[in-house]
Amino acid sequence: MMKSKILFMVLICLASTPIALSQGTCGRPLVDEAVYRPFQNEFAVGESVTYSCRTGHQLQSGYTSLNRTCQADLTWSSVGFVCERQSCGFPDTPSNGHIVGDTYTFGSTIEYFCNKGFELSTGASSVRSNCVPVVGSDPPTVAWSVATAPTCSRVPCPNPTNIANGRFEDSGVAYEYGARIEYFCDNGFKSNEASPIHRTCDENGTWGDPPQCLVDYDCDFEDFHQPTCGYSNTGWSREFRRDGLSGRSYVLHRSSGDATLTSPALTIEPPGACLSFYYRGTLRGTRLEVSQTTPGTNDASLSGGKSESDWQEAKIDLTPSNNVEFNVKVSGDPADVEIDDLTLNLSPCSVPTTAAPPGVQTTPVDEGPKSDTEDTVTVAPPASPPLSVPAIVGIAVGAVAVVLILSFVVYFCHAKKQREKKGIPGVPMSSL
Ligand SMILES: *[C@@H]1O[C@H](CO)[C@@H](O)[C@H](O)[C@H]1NC(C)=O
Ligand SMILES: *[C@@H]1O[C@H](CO)[C@@H](O)[C@H](O)[C@H]1NC(C)=O
Fold it and tell me: Which CDD domains match (predicted)?
């Protein structure tokens, strides 16, 4: 029973294909991206097939012949058409975003990304769109699976950080990518950043580290609330002077005993910082010195000036360290010494001097005139002083007055001439 069945199948196999081909049929007429009808595996000589383009494809323009025929030599007639991929067209372009992918035909995929500082509402990093057949379309067409470009919105930033001893201003902008806020330090504090101190909401939605407002070591001793700014003081007394460094102002004064002004620990970055201040007084037998106590490298002793009332500028380089401490100290014989306008510049002193050469007065540039004093006895003869403010004001007022008087004289002479010429006072020429 079994044997006979196998034999039967072998016979069928032998009888089918080779014999059939030898009797004359054409095989399957396969063409890329097209399907043929009727669907058979063999065709007799003279039989035809009609093609249609596969899904997502269309007949390339110019071709009309979609038929082929099984010829007498058992080959198919030539292919007279081309099926090409249909195009979805240029995808919808996103604002504040961009497209990756540059083929737009059936089967292609493009990807939408947001530009720097923008994001998709879904939180995804991108959106893919495929060129796919449109279901039920007639004639069959293709379209992007994501028809409308996704929306890219600005990355938001959290509320900016409040800082100690300062504040920020945001000029009413929304806290999102590109927004800029400005920080200000309270009086007596300053930042080591260049002004204006600002932060910008970056592409990751962060403001970065907030600035720091540190105690201002620049001290003119004027602020009642912070008489010695960020310095701690022993022995110096803050006193009013009519002939202070900038006219009527406060100075620090020492008359007896040790007086020391000490900085807190500071960080001074390379290449260093320049401490400068003005001082006056008789230093004979008195020591006015600046010491950098940590790292303990600099120790500058200042020499006396020409006279007690001459302000002299001291400039001392501080060595970089993350723990700099310095003090301005007077010791030795009792003597009146005053200091003013202590300033710390975060770059080395341009001229590394500690004091003026003996007998030469270094006059600070922006220093007002030291008009002759009621409070201080000057022993040295005044060396041809520069013009004082009252003198300059006097000259200016005089000059203005002269110009005014001259203008009046010219005007009146001119007016008088005109009246004599026309005889009609007060009527403009154009109305004559
Ligand atoms: C293609 O073949 C089909 C079916 O045989 C026929 O109806 C049609 O007219 C033919 N078309 C052309 C262009 O030869
Ligand atoms: C934003 O984040 C990326 C990735 O972490 C980083 O490479 C880039 O520097 C960041 N941008 C800013 C402004 O911090």
Answer: CCP
* 318-330 as b/e: b if 16+ CB within 10 A: bbebeebbbbbbb
* Residue nearest ligand 1's atom 1 by CA: 67
How far away, in angstroms, is 208 Cα from ligand 2 center?
11
The lowest-confidence range among 195-199, 314-318, 333-337, 402-406 is 402-406
247 and 353 assigned to the same domain: yes
Whether the model clears a pTM of 0.85, i.e. scores above it, the answer is no
The protein residue with its alpha carbon nearest to ligand 2, atom 9, reads: 204
Residues in the chain: 432
CA-closest residue to ligand 1 atom 10:
67
pLDDT, tens digit, for every residue of 354-393?
A: 444 433 333 333 333 333 332 222 222 333 334 444 555 5
64 CA closest ligand 1 atom index: 13
Range of the domain at 134: 97-154
- Whether residue 354 sits in one domain with residue 260: yes
Residues 280 and 331 in one domain: yes
Dihedral angle computed from the Cα positions of residues 420, 421, 422 and 427, in that order, rounded to the nearest 10 degrees:
-70
Looking at the DSSP bridge assignments, the partners of residue 281 are 337
Please report the atom of ligand 2 found closest to the CA of residue 208.
Answer: 14
pLDDT score of 130: 98
Is the domain of 254 the same as that of 355?
yes
Whether residue 415 lies inside any domain: the answer is no
Instruction: Give a yes or no: residue 276 inside a domain.
Output: yes
- Our answer on whether the CB atom of 55 is closer than 6 Å to any ligand 1 atom is no
Q: Is residue 405 part of a domain?
A: no
